[in-house]
Design goal:
The chain has about 325 residues and is of the alpha/beta class. It folds into two domains: about 45 residues, no CATH class; about 190 residues, Vaccinia Virus protein VP39 (Rossmann fold). The protein is built from ten helices and 13 strands. Strand 10, helix 7 and strand 11 form a beta-alpha-beta unit. It starts with 6 loop residues before the first strand and ends with a helix. Pfam families: Methyltransf_16 (PF10294).
């Protein structure tokens, strides 16, 4: 799917008409909500899943509003999106109170502005609704120069997976890192809005935004071309909640070949976290460090030794993986 080829059609999966989505074939159209929940798997399987997921007739659980987002944040009508200014302090990222307004002025250096769509005027997916707690925790950790970074902020090549509002990536970009925020195609405009809210057009630190669907080698190749090679650091906040995604998430992180991956995981379901930890152990991932940030788990992952050897061209050893 072309990241820019969002069109209108009648979804063959859930039945919604004149909805935004992608043409998967000449006569097969799938809305962004169904793509977000079920991907581009065979239609027969998706139909069964969508029917089971209906909250009410004609609307899948993860529904999609019918409005196209404007190209620029400044063109969003007042009240359509929620904007929050988060102030960096030694003990937390403090929210002085959410205001539903259009925010087009860059934030100050001591703050980060988040733009979200809690009413789903433009964006599908739970990631667009708000800044999730794990994202706040990671952004705060990075804003204060948190431990676990493989290099200093300046010159660091960083990729954020499933960025949404992109607060962790924005926090590192403020420190001089070269940051690329990635997400599924239909959430890229939200990433752009958050970049616009925090960086002026002329700011050299302004993060890039790119499509990266987990398990898609073509997307990985395009991101590498844009970044000039693999990232030094991968960020991910609140990505660990659906067990069916664990394999493809880890495969994508491995394909990126970064020195280090920092994940924050909300501690709302210990059983899911236990399954993820078992998955890491079974695939021989190295958990370099693991700690608690508020209600989130902070984990520094290193690739299995064999993957580091292949991607970095270094001898296959434990030392190479942990260096």
């Amino acid at each position: 799917m072309d990241a820019l080829a969002i069109d209108r059609g009648n979804c063959c999966s859930c039945g919604q008409g004149r909805i935004l989505g992608h043409w998967l074939a000449a006569e097969t159209f799938r809305c962004c909500a169904c793509l977000d929940e079920y991907g581009d798997q065979p239609l027969e399987k998706t139909r069964a899943n969508c029917k089971a997921a209906f909250r009410r007739p004609g609307k899948p659980a993860n529904w999609w509003a019918s409005r196209e987002p404007p190209q620029k944040l400044a063109d969003v009508p007042e009240g359509f999106l929620a904007s929050t200014t988060w102030w960096t302090r030694a003990d937390n990222l403090v929210d002085p109170g959410r205001k539903s307004r259009n925010c087009s002025q860059p934030a100050g250096e001591a703050s980060i502005v988040s733009v979200s769509d809690p009413a789903h005027h433009y964006f599908t997916g739970h990631g667009a609704e708000r800044v999730w707690e794990a994202g706040l925790a990671l952004a705060w950790h990075l804003s204060l120069g948190g431990q676990g970074l493989p290099l200093s902020g300046t010159g660091l090549r960083v990729l954020e997976l499933g960025a949404g509002c992109g607060m962790p990536g924005i926090a590192l970009a403020r420190q001089g890192a070269s940051v690329t925020l990635t997400d599924v195609p239909w959430l890229l405009r939200l990433c752009h809005y958050n970049v616009e809210a925090n960086f002026r057009e002329s700011d050299e630190r302004r993060p890039k935004v790119a499509t990266l669907r987990w398990g898609n080698p073509a997307d990985v190749a395009k991101v590498f071309a844009s970044m000039g090679g693999p990232p030094d650091l991968v960020l991910g906040a609140d990505l660990v909640y659906r067990e069916d995604d664990f394999d493809v998430l880890l495969a994508t992180i491995a394909a990126l070949g970064a020195h280090s991956t920092l994940l924050t995981i909300s501690r709302r379901d210990n059983a899911v976290i236990a399954v993820f930890l078992q998955k890491l152990a079974s695939q021989f991932w190295h958990v370099q460090s693991c700690g608690i940030l508020g209600n989130s788990l902070l984990m520094d992952l290193r690739l299995p030794t064999a993957d580091v050897s292949i991607r970095r061209g270094t001898p296959g050893s434990q030392a190479a993986a942990a260096a």
